[in-house]
């Protein structure tokens, strides 16, 4: 698959010493190389950060995150392509000059043809995005080659800071050069909403609106806490961590109107139109919580017991919020989004809950047919439609039976199924912006959440026990709305 028209490809991982680089970025780069998605003889993956490593130790560190490396030879070949450069500081010009000359050396040794490509992946805390961008532009931007910068989330902390970040990036780079990554847009589960709605499923597309849908839920639960990420969580909290970006992206694709085509422009336009129709979330429609220690398992400590967390932290590790969309398709349909760490299970799914037709001959006892359609990412990748049907036996007792497809069945998948990060890094290398977040969309998404986040930060989060279903008070909000999660 080496049709990439580049003389040399340099993918530079800033923050190569960090958590994301080890858990996600390097494993994705390894897999892209092992699956021949990048030209083996002309690609290097250069790590950059302030930490000092002997090359051997750096390689040990990144290898420990690569779970799919059963073949030692393939891993060794990959590591040969992974130099590491220690920077004195993220605002130190000479460090970037050193980086530039290291990359230039690798480029000069390449025998390929075409332009050189440099992709800078910024896996660093947002506080240093600015310094890194400025210095990259000044010292390490290839003058004749093609340069791209991948910016991680969170994209700012609110609407204002996102605008400041956008202006900074726009003063240094063209919009073509900037790739704002949200790894949920690399997930098949999230993208599958489009063929489900706009493919050839009239039973879904014709019922995908307020006429038939009573409410929509997004249920994101993790059975693990924010262990070791307290510094980040204290500052950002869970709404900024996953709700405002990952879960919002899922909702955008599930809620937007049909794009005119699958072109980048049309998809981005349809997404932005949907965000513009979103009513800012009301603070009173938000519940927040923070986990306390488990009463059953001494290893499951309270959020505040983590040594990286401030003792008086009010950071939220759980939130449920209600979003309304002011357009003809969705007016008055609540989109109820729940996300939480340290809960009873790991789950990520989006569900449409259908109304019971008033003339149904087979109402269930609860008054709702309970018919639902779920797109699931965790614990398994699946689609599940529950349909009301006759329970086998005498009489006309009805049940809600699942009609499902589980994508772990190899019958439904290719032999190579890339992770979300692989998909998106490869898209960035190819210069395809479709599944990245354009500037205006990144900013507008904050408009929907700003008031709710600011208000939530002035409150004391409700308590819930590690391993539980979340704060009990959530039930009152759900009851008021008549909403049930599956
Ligand atoms: P880390 O906290 O692990 O930081 C990455 C590296 O940045 C560190 O190894 C350190 O490198 C440097 N660094 C850390 N703190 C500072 C600081 N205050 N000032 C300057 N440099 C610092 O972050 P992650 O790897 O977890 O995340 C990186 C980015 O990716 C963030 O924007 C995060 O939001 C995003 N992200 C992370 C995910 C994850 O699962 N971890 C998931 C999705 C997005 P050194 O000291 O060697 O320079
Ligand atoms: C990251 C968040 O962006 O997404 C994490 O920072 C969260 O807190 C993760 O755990 C969830 O991603 P996934 O792909 O495991 O659902």
TrEMBL record:
GO process terms (BP): glucose metabolic process; pentose-phosphate shunt, oxidative branch
Pathway(s) where this gene product acts: Carbohydrate degradation; pentose phosphate pathway; D-ribulose 5-phosphate from D-glucose 6-phosphate (oxidative stage): step 1/3
Ranges of residues in domain Glucose-6-phosphate dehydrogenase C-terminal: 196-485
Domain Glucose-6-phosphate dehydrogenase NAD-binding: 12-191
Pfam families hit by this protein: G6PD_C (PF02781), G6PD_N (PF00479)
Keywords assigned: Carbohydrate metabolism, Glucose metabolism, NADP, Oxidoreductase
EC number in record: 1.1.1.49
Record-annotated membrane-spanning stretches: none
Catalytic activity: D-glucose 6-phosphate + NADP(+) = 6-phospho-D-glucono-1,5-lactone + NADPH + H(+)
Keyword tRNA processing attached: no
GO CC annotations on file: cytosol
Single GO MF annotation: NADP binding
Purpose of the protein: Catalyzes the rate-limiting step of the oxidative pentose-phosphate pathway, which represents a route for the dissimilation of carbohydrates besides glycolysis.
Similarity annotation: Belongs to the glucose-6-phosphate dehydrogenase family.
Protein name, UniProt field: Glucose-6-phosphate 1-dehydrogenase
UniProt source species: Spizellomyces punctatus (strain DAOM BR117)
